[in-house]
Design brief:
By secondary structure, this protein is an all-alpha fold. It has one domain. The chain is built from eleven helices and two strands, in the order H-H-H-H-H-H-H-E-E-H-H-H-H. Helix 6 crosses helix 10 and helix 7 crosses helix 10. The longest helix is centred in the C-terminal third of the chain and has 29 residues.
């Protein structure tokens, strides 16, 4: 009961922060500070996944240098999104292969280092970029949350077959399939009911977001299991760390940002959603 209370209180605070960030399209100092702090915390949490202190320090120093310069580079993702998209697709294909072929503690610090930059750099870059278009962040967070919740409840209800027991024993194939079906329907209905948009496009987008978020979830679970830790940190009472809470969002946000800048229809709808 005490843990549930902590989770509710933590979730309430995080929701208030999300509402503040996504309430309008203006960029102010407070939003930049929040995005910078979140980026630095995630970098610190990720560095805990290294076994070597040398890798920890090197990763933090190089990454912090990028994070501190990110507020001045908000246009880079939009201008070079084609290159980012190609790199991201390649990165997540490699990561998916590692997830599917994972054996206990077989990932060394060098690979953890490379994977960290391939996943977190695009996330931080897209996080600062979409401050101008907060609707995309709101959509991603809501859709990933629906995906996590539906997979959990379907898995608890009818789940019998483990998805990848060597990485995340609690996840089931039934929960995964249920999430792929439920999430696109609910997220597209939300867009339709609140913004009157056609649900067909968002059924496909919701499916895409759900699939990528699951891969992100499994990837960070793999890294934590590789280091033999349960949570990325204990900064969020009842939840663990920010990576534990945002693992799916870290995977989805940069990829959806590409669509946001390249597909005019999606760009228009998500811009409207930010008001």
């Amino acid at each position: 009961m005490k843990n549930i209370t902590k989770r509710i209180c933590s979730a309430a605070v995080l929701i208030l922060i999300l509402v503040y960030i996504t309430q309008d399209t203006t960029i102010n100092l407070a939003k930049i500070v929040v995005a910078t702090l979140l980026s630095l915390i995630i970098v610190w949490e990720y560095s805990r996944l290294f076994k070597s202190r040398i890798y920890q320090a090197l990763f933090q120093i190089l990454f912090v240098s990028f994070v501190l310069s990110a507020p001045y580079l908000t246009g880079i993702l939009e201008k070079t999104s084609n290159y980012f998209f190609g790199l991201l697709v390649f990165a997540w294909v490699v990561i998916l292969f590692r997830v599917l072929t994972y054996k206990k503690k077989n990932i060394d610090d060098f690979l953890v280092f490379i994977f960290g930059y391939l996943t977190l750099l695009p996330f931080v870059g897209s996080l600062f970029t979409i401050l101008i278009y907060p609707g995309i962040l709101l959509y991603v967070v809501i859709t990933v949350s629906i995906a996590d919740s539906s997979a959990y409840f379907v898995g608890r209800r009818v789940g019998k077959i483990a998805l990848l027991s060597n990485i995340s024993p609690g996840k089931t194939i039934e929960g995964f399939v249920g999430s792929l079906v439920i999430t696109p329907i609910i997220s597209s209905l939300i867009v339709y009911l609140f913004y009157g948009e056609d649900v067909i496009e968002f059924l496909f987008i919701g499916f895409f977001v759900t699939l990528i978020s699951v891969i992100g979830d499994l990837f960070f679970s793999l890294l934590k299991r590789n280091k033999n830790i349960k949570d990325s940190s204990n900064l969020i009472p009842g939840h663990g760390g920010f990576i534990d809470l945002l693992d799916g969002t870290i995977a989805v946000l940069p990829l959806l940002a590409f669509l946001f800048f390249k597909v005019s229809y999606l760009s228009m709808v998500l811009s409207v959603m930010s008001f």
